[in-house]
Amino acid sequence: MESGNGSTWSKGVLMSVSTDSDVFQNDILAPLRSSYLYEESKQCFRYKSAVLVKNPALENKYNTFRAKKREAGYSEKDLKESFGFLLFDDIHKAEALGETGVLIGNSTCTTLGDPANGVYISSYSDCLEQNRWYHGKSGYIVIIRLTTGRVKEVLENYTENFTAPTEGFDCHVSEQLFSVSARSSSFLAFEKTQYYIYELLDDGSNGNAQSPSSACPYAIVSFSYMDTREALLPPQLESAEKKLSK
Asked: How far is CA 105 from CA 54, 201, 208, in A?
């Protein structure tokens, strides 16, 4: 299977998946479609091809994290698995996560914590960047298996004195997370629905893991966004609407 720019997806830790298969329908499309914030996303997203990430080292690290936290007394709620999502325009950068995991410094977001100490991952599959989706947009979505662990709600911090990872917790979310709705702008929805995930090392260094064990790349999906309403507009009306919106 090849991506739109000719990169071969079925290689190394990446296993190509037929779009006709149950795996594609149930294990890849299902988490994407169940994680929309906006109703129109159901009609607008087209998923064209996919690979599963099969990296034994990352999977073992993820499972070891879960086992250690269970032994440490984490509740089933703390250990509940979910999915997160990351957007890429470059297939090679998306593929690299299959080898490295999600590396700290992966985002320019800073409101929940220093990106140099943790990773930012989107909780909604259609809130992956601050800008609104536009007709014809395409790219790659990496689906991440997550165990967010103990989650701390924090006040969004817009200063350059970044919020530090909180000892005894594994993830920060915005205090405003649950105020987000389908009526929220794409900018606010993206900003307020991020997970900030970090892993404090227990080796006495007071450092942070380069790739948090609680976030394990699961699949990569190529997509296009087709605004069905815009696609159906006659050229004259589309031009008029664009002028009115300026």
From this structure: 23, 17, 12
Residues 6+ apart with CB under 8 A from 17: 23, 24, 28, 50, 51, 52, 219
222, 49 in Cβ contact below 8 A?
A: yes
Classify 190 as helix, strand or coil.
helix
128-131: long-range pairs with CB below 8 Å, 24+: 128/85, 128/86, 128/87, 128/190, 129/87, 129/186, 129/190, 130/186, 130/187, 130/190, 130/191, 131/186, 131/187
The pTM for the full model equals: 0.88
pLDDT in tens, 118-144: 999 999 999 999 988 899 999 999 999
Q: Whose structure tokens read 């739109």?
A: 4
